[in-house]
């Protein structure tokens, strides 16, 4: 049984189930490791190891003896002049290298891959109030490339590659597709979604719509994805969806003296994201009002926001 708090905020490239728990990371960078070492039980149950995502065989010795593998992240870069090297290769080759090592390790029972709603909704289909987005949706690589959405392309190609390899090699693969992940930070640095919340509060522009989920729900879904024998296929993880206007309204409700009420009305409409399959896994989504407040309070506690 995994300790919920251990996986809760462990945003590593690959997370391994093997007592003591092992995690691939840049072990010499305290900003990436000290918060992990500080967790309860880490001294006895957490081992930090390094591997190179794009180097084939790099994970062989690390995964040896594991019963489960969580491949939980790939680079998140919105602006790049070299998308192949910065995003696509680490995402696709990294995923395949981890899966190849899992295939070589007969003790691995299941692999849980963190994908994204980026690999679900970006296909040119109109998303209106009567549209239901579910696990049967897939982003279109050609559409991503045409619009130069390189991060979305990297997640889409990585998930496709993972399914192809898993099906060809008999790997029990479960995929999580979370939306914009909010919630309190464990690490001492800002990640992209946390920076996005800071920017919103400071009045910077954002996106037309947001499909949000709390990090604690994402963590719980990953655990259930490994532990529940009936888990299979993809799981879209979205607690609530907002237009930009609606999200600003919620921030204004929570912090009326800090965030101005939005003045312009939007014409954007957003579809409904199905929760049916995620709920079958045992996920009960946290209200995003609670998650957003926890996010802001965590940012204040770590001095990323001062008010």
- Biggest sheet character: 7 strands, mixed
Radius of gyration, in angstroms, nearest whole number: 19 Å
Q: Strand order of the main beta sheet, please?
A: 3-2-1-4-5-7-10
Order of helices and strands: HEEHHEHEHEHEHHEEHEHEEHEHH
What structural class results from the helix and strand content? alpha/beta
Compute the average pLDDT.
88
Low-confidence segments, given as residue ranges, are: 1-24
Strand content: 15-25%
First CA to last CA: what distance? Answer: 40 Å
Portion in helices: 40-55%
Number of E-state strands: 12
Brief overview:
By secondary structure, this protein is an alpha/beta fold. It has 13 helices and twelve strands. The strands form three sheets. A seven-stranded mixed sheet has the order 3-2-1-4-5-7-10, with helices on both faces. Strands 8-9-11 form a three-stranded mixed sheet.
């Amino acid at each position: 049984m995994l300790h919920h708090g251990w996986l809760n905020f462990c945003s590593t490239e690959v997370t391994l189930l093997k007592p003591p728990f092992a995690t691939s990371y840049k072990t010499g960078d305290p900003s990436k490791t000290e918060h992990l070492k500080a967790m309860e039980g880490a001294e006895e149950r957490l081992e930090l190891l390094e591997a190179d995502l794009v180097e084939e065989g790099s994970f062989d010795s690390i995964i040896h003896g594991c019963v489960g593998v969580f491949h939980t992240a790939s680079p998140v870069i919105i602006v790049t002049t070299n998308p192949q090297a910065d995003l696509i290769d680490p995402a696709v080759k990294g995923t395949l290298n981890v899966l190849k090592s899992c295939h070589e390790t007969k003790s691995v029972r299941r692999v849980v891959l963190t994908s994204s709603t980026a690999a679900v909704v970006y296909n040119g289909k109109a998303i209106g109030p009567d549209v239901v987005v579910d696990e049967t949706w897939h982003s279109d690589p050609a559409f991503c490339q045409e619009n130069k959405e390189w991060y979305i392309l990297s997640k889409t190609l990585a998930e496709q590659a993972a399914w192809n390899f898993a099906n060809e090699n008999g790997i029990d693969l479960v995929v999580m597709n979370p939306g914009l992940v909010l919630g309190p930070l464990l690490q001492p640095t800002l990640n992209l979604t946390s920076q996005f919340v800071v920017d919103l509060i400071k009045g910077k522009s954002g996106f037309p719509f947001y499909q949000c989920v709390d990090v604690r729900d994402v963590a719980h879904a990953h655990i259930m994805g490994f532990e529940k024998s009936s888990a299979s296929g993809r799981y879209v993880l979205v607690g609530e969806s907002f237009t930009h206007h609606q999200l600003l309204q919620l921030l204004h409700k929570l912090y009326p003296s800090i965030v101005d009420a939005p003045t312009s009305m939007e014409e954007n409409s957003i579809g409904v994201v199905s929760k049916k399959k995620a709920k079958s896994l045992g996920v009960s989504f946290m209200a995003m009002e609670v998650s957003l407040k926890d996010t802001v309070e965590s940012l204040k506690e770590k001095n990323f926001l001062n008010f």
